[in-house]
Amino acid sequence: MKLLLVEDEPKLSEYLRKGLGEEGFVVDAALNGVDGLHMASVNDYDLIILDGNLPGIDGLAVLAALRQGQQTRQTPVLMLTARVQVEDRVRGLQGGADDYVLKPFAFSELVARIHVLLRRAQGSRAGGGEA
Ligand code: CA
To answer: Contacts by 60-69 with C-beta closer than 8 Å and gap 24+?
Structure first.
């Protein structure tokens, strides 16, 4: 399973990349929304982990662009959101995020939610006759 991580905090990005790699995922990391959108448009990811608070194009704008992209329209998006940003969480879900995890989060919770989303995506794909 191939994941794209869009997170601007280098330490958190590195920590997640390493941890998710140990969980058996292939992880590409983008440190901002522009790079994230570019990578998502040229690669096929099973799931995208998206920080809600990014410099430049913020997470919600990245989400909107992902939902409009041919390549990423159906890709599950898990948002990372600060506990205080209730409005952002609501807007994220309205904007098409599949789930979110509140920062600071337990790594095990993130992994569990990733697995739930991937299972759900596989289930909906199974009926679609995709090879
Ligand atoms: Ca951030």
So the answer is: 60/88, 60/91, 60/92, 60/95, 61/33, 62/6, 62/33, 62/36, 62/37, 63/92, 63/95, 63/96, 63/97, 64/95, 64/96, 65/37, 66/37, 66/40, 66/96, 67/95, 67/96, 69/37, 69/40, 69/41
